[in-house]
Every structure is written in C-alpha cells, then in structure tokens.
Amino acid sequence: MSASDIVVAITGASGVQYGRRLVDVLLQAGRTVHLVISPAATQVCFEELGLSVNLEQFEPQHFLEKELDPATLARLKYHHYQDFNAGIASGSFRTAGMVICPCSMGTLGSLANGMSTNLIHRVADVHLKERRKIVIVPRETPLSSIQLENMKRLVDAGAVILPAMPGFYLRPESIDDLIDFIVSRICDHLDVEVNLTKRWGDPTR
Ligand SMILES: Cc1cc2nc3c(=O)[nH]c(=O)nc-3n(C[C@H](O)[C@H](O)[C@H](O)COP(=O)(O)O)c2cc1C
Q1: pLDDT at site 101
Q2: Hey, which of 49, 67, 153, 169 would disulfide with 112, CB 3.0 to 4.6 Å?
C-alpha cells in the first residue's frame, strides 16, 4: 500500500475501452493500480471488444491491450468484486483516489444512495467518507432526472463527475484519440502527469 495507489473500477456501461486504457496509462506512469470489475462489465467487454474476462481467475495480461513487462504488470492488483476483505475496502488503506470508468447508471444510483452491495460501491463509499478524490465517468444518453439528481448528490458529496464526452476541438483522427481525450482529463484530476493528447493553447503540440 502507498498513498499514491489508485483504485480503478470498471462497471457495465458502454465504453470499457476507457477503463482499460486508463489502467494501462496509470501503470505506465508508475502507479500501483487496484482494479475491480463488475460482472456486467464483463458482458460489455464481450460485446464491445470480443474479450472474455473471467472474474474468478482473472488474467491481467489477457485483459490489457498492450503487453507489459513483468515489473509494470506486478503493480496491477486485482480484487474480486465481492471481496469485502480487500484492503481497499477500508478507510485505513491509503490511496491517491478512485476512478469509476465507465460508470453505469446502476452503480451511480447505488453510490448516490449509499447502497454498498459490492466492493466497487464499498470503496467508493470509503473515498467519499474519507474525502478523497473520486472521479466518476458516467455513460448514458439521454439522462433522466433521477440520473441527473444522482450525479448532483455525488458532486455535493465531493465526487468529480467527468462524463465520457470527448471534445472534438483537438481534431481527433481515431477512436484512440477520443479515448485518450477522456483518459487524459481523468489523469489531470488525479494529478498524474501524462502526455497523451494535444492541449488547447499549447503552441508546442
Ligand atoms: C452491451 C451493454 C451495454 C450497456 N451500456 C450501458 C450504458 O452505457 N450505461 C448504463 O448505465 N448501463 C449500460 N448497460 C446496462 C448495465 O450493464 C446494467 O444496468 C448493469 O446492471 C450495471 O451493473 P454494474 O453497475 O454493477 O456494472 C449496458 C449493458 C450491456 C450488456
């Protein structure tokens, strides 16, 4: 455990590529990443990436897009979504923050109402009560008043709502550019230095 560790939760909303890329970028930035994946996220992984993810016998290198060297891969700590004994379930386990990416409306509703029925909800509860950084990347369209109110409640409780809404003003040329736009903004909020995209107003890029 170190106060620079980051928790990444991937839930069953469209856009699991954002979460997968985020894990890769954080590991390459030298961070230890605690990863939790919901069962619904495995369904989305299969639909969107053709990837079968086994949460019982998780294989990190199978899940990640890029081949990582063993030392980098060793900084990826996987936790089963029902493992309430995991260190990250406790406020005494120090982290630099948590990201839920993508965040389904189901998980959003659970968090907004303090319903802690899996490890993802519990770790988010902990980050909110400990007043630590928590970045939530919701994905749904359009949004109901219930979903908007849930987001408002979470912002009021200290979360950052960072919707998976990439900007087009940097003239993206690929889906990877759109993904990196969001991943870069998440890293900004975590104070993790990355150089993934151009930045508006930067003449050197
Ligand atoms: C292919 C697929 C795409 C989905 N996309 C979304 C989505 O974009 N947003 C959302 O809120 N739910 C989406 N869902 C529904 C959620 O997966 C479902 O509500 C689930 O219960 C969420 O559980 P979780 O929050 O524990 O991951 C999708 C489901 C599937 C199978």
Answers
A1: 98
A2: 153
What is d(CA 121, CA 69) in angstroms, rounded to the nearest whole number?
31
Evaluate whether 11 touches 111 at the Cβ level (below 8 Å).
no
Is domain 6-190 classified as CATH 3.40.50.1950?
Answer: yes
Q: Residue-wise over 26-46: b if at least 16 C-beta within 10 A, else e?
A: bbeeebbbbbbbbebbbebbe
Residue 123 phi/psi, 5-degree rounding, is -65, -35
| pLDDT digits 0-9 by tens, 38-75 | 999 999 999 999 999 999 999 999 999 888 999 999 99
Q: How far is 19 from 162, CA to CA, in rounded Å?
A: 13
**pLDDT beneath 50, residues of the chain:** none
Q: Where exactly are the structural domains of the chain? A: 6-190
Looking at residue 205, its pLDDT comes to 58
CA of 205 to the centre of ligand 1 (A): 37
Nearest CA to ligand 1 atom 26: 38
Helix axes 105-112, 145-156, angle to 10 degrees: 50
Question: How much distance in Å is there from the Cα of 171 to the middle of ligand 1?
Answer: 29
